[in-house]
């Protein structure tokens, strides 16, 4: 039986059992795709990061949801490097990470904050009926009546449908039809739908967000790093501010009892960062995974 060290690390949080839990295998060398998928399914976190050797970077990573592999995951990247720093495996400074979307820089600060550089933004408006989107999100049509900010496709490595919402009460009361959200995601070719409002809970926060990605096996993600980077670039692209703040703070997760904060910088590059706390550190037995020939079909 193959036994691997396995952790759950809460990203974008200052204390355990908050923010977004990421599964982490610090040494996944030799595991097959099927074994990684089985581990991710067993852990049940929205994403699990599997760290591997790399010939082009300090290390490589693959990310799996409970049902699929995804190309990039912000919170699992932050979680992985926060753990590596805490464990003495990486020092303060900038490290390189090979992902399915290319090699990215990840910076570890003296205070433990981890910041990752994302890809060049790709942003464009989408032609969707507002009533249909409102129905999919389970909000009133008037909730999407936000002046000057359109619904848009936004990506800094992983694409999202960005939907501005008027009030926190609208966003907090959302009751999404996950099948409809999945259909929207597939139509626009995005990983999920990120809805946000400037009507935030904290005076220090730039906005409050929620993100649903049922097509990737994630009904609602507590705190989403890749989406935060995409939304930061979206706000800059569509001139949401007279001058884009040097650092934006996105709050998320409060409506699923996993509050967290993402720090977003948009300049020559898009960066997202935050803190992380190890909640569980142990070992997992990884059995061989067959080809499914023993599964009965009726």
Write the layout of secondary structure elements.
Layout: E1 2-11, E2 20-25, H1 33-43, E3 47-52, E4 59-64, E5 69-70, H2 74-86, E6 93-99, E7 102-108, E8 114-117, E9 122-125, H3 130-137, E10 152-155, E11 159-164, H4 168-172, H5 178-188, E12 192-197, E13 207-213, E14 218-221, H6 225-237, E15 248-252, E16 260-266, E17 270-274, E18 276-286
Parallel strand pairs: 2-3, 4-6, 11-12, 13-15
Antiparallel strand pairs: 1-2, 1-18, 3-4, 4-5, 6-7, 7-8, 8-17, 9-10, 10-11, 12-13, 13-14, 15-16, 16-17
Helix pairs in contact: 3-5
In words, what does this structure look like?
The chain is of the alpha+beta class. The protein folds into 2 domains: 2-118 and 276-286, Diaminopimelate Epimerase, Chain A, domain 1 (Roll), CATH 3.10.310.10; 122-268, Roll (Diaminopimelate Epimerase, Chain A, domain 1). The protein has 6 helices and 18 strands. The protein has an 18-stranded mixed β-sheet that branches. Helix 3 crosses helix 5. The longest helix is centred in the N-terminal third of the chain and has 13 residues, at 74-86. The radius of gyration is 19 Å and the shape is globular. The relative contact order is 0.19.
């Amino acid at each position: 039986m193959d036994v691997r060290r396995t952790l759950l690390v809460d990203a974008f949080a200052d204390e355990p059992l908050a923010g977004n839990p990421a599964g982490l295998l610090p040494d996944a060398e030799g595991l097959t795709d099927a074994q990684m998928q089985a581990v991710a399914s067993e852990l049940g976190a929205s994403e699990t990061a599997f760290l591997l050797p790399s010939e082009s970077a300090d290390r490589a990573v693959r990310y799996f949801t409970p049902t699929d592999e995804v190309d990039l995951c912000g919170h699992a990247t932050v979680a992985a490097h926060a753990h590596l720093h805490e464990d003495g495996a990486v020092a303060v400074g900038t490290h390189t990470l090979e992902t399915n979307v290319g090699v990215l820089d990840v910076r570890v600060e003296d205070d433990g904050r981890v910041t990752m550089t994302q890809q060049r933004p790709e942003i464009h408006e989408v032609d969707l009926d507002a009533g249909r989107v409102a129905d999919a999100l389970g909000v009133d049509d008037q909730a999407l009546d936000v002046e000057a900010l359109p619904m848009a496709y936004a990506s800094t490595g992983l694409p999202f449908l960005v939907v501005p919402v008027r009030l926190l009460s609208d966003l907090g009361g959302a009751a999404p039809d996950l099948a409809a959200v999945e259909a929207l995601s597939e139509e626009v070719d995005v990983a999920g739908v990120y809805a946000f409002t400037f009507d935030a809970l904290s005076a220090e926060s730039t906005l409050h967000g929620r993100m649903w990605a049922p097509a990737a096996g994630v009904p609602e993600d507590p705190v989403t790093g890749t989406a935060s980077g995409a939304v930061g670039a979206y706000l800059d692209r569509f001139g949401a501010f007279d001058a884009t703040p040097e650092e934006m703070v996105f709050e998320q997760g409060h409506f699923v009892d996993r509050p967290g904060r993402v720090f977003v910088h948009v300049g020559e590059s898009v960066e997202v960062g935050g803190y992380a706390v190890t909640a569980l550190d142990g070992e997992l037995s990884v059995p061989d995974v067959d080809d499914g020939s023993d599964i009965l079909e009726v």
